Amino acid sequence: MDDLRPITPIRRPLVDKRARVPASKSVANREIVLSAIADGRSRINLGPLDPGDDVRAMTEAVVALDYRVVWDADEIVIRGSAASHRAGAAIDARDAGTVARFGAALAALGSGYVTITGSQRLRERPIAPLLEALRRLGATVTGARLPVTIVGPIRGGEIEIAGNESSQFASALLLVAPRLDGGLRLEILGALVSAPFVDLTIASLRRRGVKIERDGNLIRIEQGKVRARNLRIPGDVTAATYPAAAAAVLGGAVTIDGVDARVRPGNQGDARFFELLEAMGCGVSHRGGGVTVSRIGELHGIRANVKDCSDVFPTLAVVATQASEATELTGIGHTRKQESDRVRVVANGINALGGRAQAFADAIRVEPAPMHDGIVDACADHRVAMAFSVLGLQVPGVAIKGAGSVTKTFPQFYEMLAELSR
Fold it and tell me: Catalytic residue among 311, 341, 373, 377, which?
């Protein structure tokens, strides 16, 4: 995306501002898949804000596989059924890793051949370990990268999956496991990135009555029914990091409504961001169904391994540009294979504005330095575009190239920033 968006600076503390964010993409996409394979009708309430391209792509993937779906205003109604996809179904995952990976596992439940494709960048992102696991479970899969064709059905049994590139490989298999003959015994090999998102998947399954046993990286899921549910998707914790970062950068306070940002088992994994903001000198309180972030004094640098919440490292990095000491964030090597090479792109963005950042294979170091105007190339990465847009509230003259990418997960992001300035 070549669209260029100048950011209007605020450069003053926020005075008791409030913000809203879309429904959680991570929760919604898991619940869409589980609703498709559930027994009965599920209603998924997404709230008043547009949930973004990724949720729409996941919904379209389920429709492509012949599940009965009605999207009316802020609610998706899905009537679950056993898998019986028609031959020739096609899933366009667009730019969404969750859709490609969850969609591949869902497609493998049926006996008709299904083609999965996506954007050019998504075709470069890893999916081979998941495809090989589907092969070992009985699917016929052509190709190791998108586009691929999958013919099921897969069966239950024992399977191993690497955890070092994406937690979504494990989550994809877990989501369909209750529908497999004999269930599934899944072992995650090696260090697991974004581990809380596997916890989130397990929590979603348990809420639908699925029996799960877990011993570290060994997970057993019994074959059985998946209950239909009516639920409201909570606010997206990752999206909430952007208004929270605005309070950290500008000072003052902001409350993000409808977001549970507490770190606890089964909650959205990026909640740890708010603990890291506290370590940098911010106040964080959880009350009234939301989270409030405030800052009065100076920001401090931190050293942290963020392998478990790597989606928020771009936001932490831009906050770190305003700190009084250097910040080092590690455990982010796998983000080089996301919507962009995030480690390189974030470092380049900071340096383009006069900051001082150094990218390493698995880390980034940010040192205090005076910043100036300039253009940040987000490389069509929504997380980078939103993070640097927040920085532009403090640094005058910032413009974001590729700002349109925010529609992936937060279409009304710039309206939210405008509300903060009022």
Answer: 311
